[in-house]
Amino acid sequence: xxxxxxxxxxxxxxSLTEQRTYPYYYRLRADQRAKRRQVTYAVISAFAMLIGFAxxxxxxxxxxxxxxxxxxxxADAPDIVTETPDPAAATAPQPxxxxxxxxKLIDCRTCPPVTIMESEGHGEIDRLGITTRPISFAEFHTFxxxxxxxxxxxxxxxxxxxxxxxxxxxxxxxxxxxSLESSKIYxxxxxxxxxxxxxxxxxxxxxxxxxxxxxxxGDCADSGPRDDETEPCMLRSIASGxxxxxxxxxxxxxxxxxxxxxxxxxxxxx
Length: 270
Description:
By secondary structure, the chain is α+β, with helices and mostly antiparallel strands. It has helices at 5-19, 21-76, 87-91, 137-147, 168-182, 191-204; strands at 104-105, 114-116, 127-131, 214-220, 235-240, 243-248, 256-257, 261-264. The protein has two domains: 1-45, no CATH class; 87-269, no CATH class.
């Protein structure tokens, strides 16, 4: 190093040139800008992750609440085991029997089995079918779950047990609902049809039920002729043993259940 004034000035200028002080300053600014960008990207990424987690947990919580609500709804429902018919039976009736009497078919998934009652002749005549057994608690529960109608007040012993503690209005409402579900016409049997059905039901061993002694029928039991079929019927027929009585349609009896009938064309049982 030169200690003379001129030598010191030359050394200082040389040091500025060699160390590149000004370029170093600009590099420092560039590094600082790069670091700021990195910090900004990191903050944005973290914020995006937080939003993603918040949306994920919000969706999960909603699904959990829905699952819990569904579980509570199932827990509150009665312990019903719905009968599931053989899918093949819904579309393919049993093989033909002599005269078709006693053959069975099922119209739909929610439909009870139907037994053919009569089939005299071989022409294109209508045949009558009646449910093979009384409408069960399981079948009636499917109806109440779909429509919101109240379950009967009597306790259920078994889902397959014939539903009872019903009024005529309850039985008719079920028949109307089943007709819509199956696209077939189901109805309560008339007094004459019920008397005709007794033979085949006794043969099947299904007419006797431990909790059902009376069966609602479709006939209006009002005394005297009615001027207009649209007039409301005040009394409805109910069979008990071999007798037929008359009661208001909204009367609920502890031992009252019901069967349903429907007309069967010749083609519907092939």
